[in-house]
Write a structure and sequence with these properties.
This protein has one domain. It is mainly α. It is elongated and about 65 Å long. The protein has 4 helices and 2 strands, in the order αββααα. The two termini are about 25 Å apart. Strands 1-2 form a two-stranded antiparallel ribbon. A hairpin with a 5-residue loop joins strand 1 and strand 2.
């Protein structure tokens, strides 16, 4: 029962990781950078939002697999994958891509902390699943 609740929670975290950046990046607010040639380009937070969408899909699938898996090995493997995906949710807005330099932008005070919290909660849920999975008895062949 705990795995079903945690799996559903992970699916919700994946939805937050995929949807939150889409509405809080600067491009959704109509803000872009203008190059010296006059070309408009999206800011870093837009690319973070795109990357988070790419992480949210496998994170959601890992949550679904967690809800329905019954084998110890499957839960262990999905938990390990989920911990890495949760870490990526944190790393994209902080170190890998980043967000805008201006602290007054929505991406700095909504998107970045929201993704960090979502990543931490995802990692915590997968660690609990990992610990519980190690306690499962081996299936009888």
């Amino acid at each position: 029962m705990l795995n079903k609740i945690l799996g559903l929670s992970i699916v919700v975290f994946a939805l937050v990781a995929g949807i939150l950046p889409a509405f809080t990046d600067c491009l959704s607010q109509g803000k872009q950078l203008t190059t010296t040639t006059g070309k408009l380009v999206p800011m870093k937070c837009h690319w973070t939002a795109i990357a988070e969408l790419g992480v949210a899909v496998p994170l959601g699938l890992a949550g679904i697999f967690t809800m329905f898996s019954k084998r110890k090995e499957t839960r262990l493997a999905v938990s390990a994958l989920g911990i890495v995906l949760g870490a990526l949710v944190i790393l994209f807005p902080t170190y890998l891509i980043g967000v805008c330099a201006n602290p007054d932008m929505k991406c700095n005070y909504i998107m970045k902390p929201g993704l960090i919290i979502t990543g931490i909660l995802s990692i915590a849920a997968f660690v609990v699943i990992l610990v519980n999975s190690r306690k499962l008895a081996e299936p009888v062949a």
